[in-house]
TrEMBL record:
Gene3D superfamilies: Glycosyl hydrolase domain, family 43. InterPro entries: Glyco_hydro_beta-prop_sf (IPR023296), Mannoside_phosphorylase (IPR007184). It holds the Pfam family Glyco_hydro_130. Keywords: Glycosyltransferase, Hydrolase, Transferase. Belongs to the glycosyl hydrolase 130 family. It comes from Gillisia mitskevichiae. PANTHER family: GLYCOSIDASE (PTHR34106). One of its GO terms (molecular function) is hydrolase activity. This is Putative GH43/DUF377 family glycosyl hydrolase.
């Protein structure tokens, strides 16, 4: 971890409220005026998730907290919950993305809002292919991408899980993160088909149909933004906080999972992407930006986890909100100019 990073500790923990009595973590964050609005994953006993809400005065002080979820499951595809939200403002509309989980399958979905109070669900925006369909598509491109794109899913198939579960098992797609403006006239979002980070451009949601995804996955290498390159991300990576536009490029804070003898360690990492073509990586830190070093990051429902999902900029100080050990919400900060300088020095 870099010495210019300051950890501020835990700012939100679980309560006795039934919807968040197991843990609160992985928050979406957006600043409006002097307030930061957090929309967080709230977990109740049995690992059922909803999205909770709290408001901060400044970057750290909780001044308001809802005692009921903001969003809850409404159909069978969301049975196990809504997980790991992120939020981005494009023009005058807020885009809240999250993963939906039915206990077997995971898809990326989103909702929109004008006021951060009421949200209109827009549904799933990620592909829906079973493992056989996905394998046939991706094998056409396998020489240009990591074979891990298949290994994760072949593990499921090798255990015949679709037969055991007596249900359809689809390819997981999660970590949906919108860019805060259109790029070349199109919406853009990052997502994660294990184990790399990819990007999607589209003009309207109806464009994201089955034919679109068939072509997309067949040519997946054209859409990969970041690959797992360094020791601290040898397992996989995924988009974290919404990209921040700077004069030097899009600043992307993402999560990186490392495989160790004691299990996976989740770190926060950073990269810089080209402003007009974010598929071009300008720079990438070669070691973790934030890693689990404190007891509240090392011990919890899942040990050794720093999972960044939201950020807020106050003057030149960038605050990163993250899930700590899948149990609580913590904050770290750094001078954004120092971070950008470090990135440019790191290069590729």
């Amino acid at each position: 971890m870099y010495d210019f990073v300051k950890k501020h500790g835990v700012i939100l923990e679980k309560t006795d409220n039934s919807f968040e009595n197991e843990g609160v973590f992985n928050p979406a964050a957006i600043r409006e005026g002097n307030n930061v609005h957090l929309f967080y994953r709230a977990v109740r006993t049995g690992n059922f998730s909803t999205i909770g809400y709290c408001k901060l005065d400044g970057p750290l002080k909780v001044v308001e907290r809802s005692d009921i979820p903001i969003l809850s499951p409404e159909n069978s595809q969301e049975f196990q919950g809504l997980e790991d939200p992120r939020i981005t403002k494009i023009d005058d509309t807020y885009y809240l993305t999250y993963a939906i989980y039915d206990g077997i399958n995971v898809f990326g979905a989103y909702a929109i809002s004008k006021d951060l109070i009421t949200f209109e669900r827009k549904g799933i925006i990620t592909p829906k292919f079973n493992f056989d369909e996905y394998a046939k598509l991706i094998r056409q491109n396998i020489n240009k991408i990591s074979d891990k794109h298949l290994l994760f899913y072949e593990l499921f198939e090798s255990h015949h899980l679709s037969n055991v579960m007596k249900a359809d098992v689809f390819v997981w797609d999660k970590n949906i993160v919108f860019f805060p403006r259109k790029i070349n006239g199109k919406y853009a979002f990052l997502h994660r088909l294990f184990p790399t980070i990819q990007i999607v451009f589209f003009k309207k949601q109806q464009d994201l149909n089955r034919d679109f995804w068939i072509d997309y996955i067949t040519h997946l290498s054209d859409h990969i933004v970041l690959r797992a390159s360094y020791q601290h991300e040898r397992s996989h990576i995924g988009a974290g906080c919404p990209p921040i536009e700077t004069k030097d490029g899009w600043l992307l804070i993402y999560h990186a999972a490392e495989i160790t003898a004691n299990g996976r360690i989740y770190n926060a990492a950073a990269a810089l992407l080209d402003l007009e073509d974010p598929r071009k990586v300008i720079a990438q830190l070669k070691k973790p930006l934030i890693c689990p070093t404190e007891e509240w990051e090392k011990k919890g429902v899942v040990n050794n986890v720093v999972f960044p999902t939201g950020s807020a900029l106050f003057d030149d100080e960038l605050y990163i909100y993250y899930g700590a050990a899948d149990s609580r919400i913590a904050v770290a900060s750094m001078n954004i100019n120092t971070l950008l300088t470090e990135l440019k020095l790191s290069g590729l």
